[in-house]
Amino acid sequence: SLFTLPPPLGSGLVASAVGPLADNLLERGWEVSRVRKTAQAIAFLGPASAMTGAAAIDDPTLTVGLLTVGLSLASFSYAGLYCNHQDMSPRYSSILLGITNTVGALPGVIGVPLTGYLLEMTDNWELSMFLPAVFFYVTGVGVFTKWGRAEKQSWG
């Protein structure tokens, strides 16, 4: 049970630093879109890298360490996607967050049966568990990098 404690503790620590870090980059002249896309790339590629590494090793302590670091880096979303709604439309940001959270939940819905199918086909727990998540994280980076915008919209 002690192995379940490090990831949320790490996430809390990273979350505390992400906002000031993003503010510092903005003060140094970074464009808002660049800050949001960079933060979101870290938030997605950190866990994807950790899960890839965890799938390749057979040491429980190292696995917990990798997953703690990776899932902690997911807190960079607070300076990425979660701020992006306010950038685009202060008036409708709550509605936009609801829409993106709904779409973001779909990989979880798809991932459960896909994980079961992969486990049945491969008899490999690590591959079955982590491969779908890594796929969706990497796909998310591509989508957000290509189409993500932080400019206020005319309708917002």
What would you note in describing this structure?
With about 160 residues, this protein is mainly α. Helix content is about 80%, strand content about 0%. It has 6 helices and no strands. It has helices at about 5-25, 30-55, 60-75, 80-90, 95-120, 125-145. The longest helix is centred in the last third of the chain and has 30 residues, at about 95-120. It is globular and about 50 Å long. The N and C termini lie far apart (about 45 Å).
Notable characteristics:
mainly alpha, globular, 156 residues
List the helices and strands and how they pair.
Blueprint: H1 6-27, H2 32-56, H3 60-73, H4 81-88, H5 93-122, H6 125-147
Helix pairs in contact: 1-2, 1-3, 2-3, 2-4, 2-6, 4-5, 5-6
Order of helices and strands: HHHHHH
Query: Considering DSSP H and I runs of 4 or more, what fraction of the residues is helical?
Result: over 70%
Give the C-alpha Rg.
17 Å
Q: How many helical elements? A: 6
Low-confidence stretches: none
> Distance between the terminal alpha carbons, to the nearest Å?
46 Å
Averaged pLDDT, please? 93
Shape: globular
The biggest sheet, with number of strands, parallel, antiparallel or mixed sense and barrel status, is: none
Tell me briefly what this model is.
This protein has 156 residues and is mainly α. The protein contains six helices and no strands.
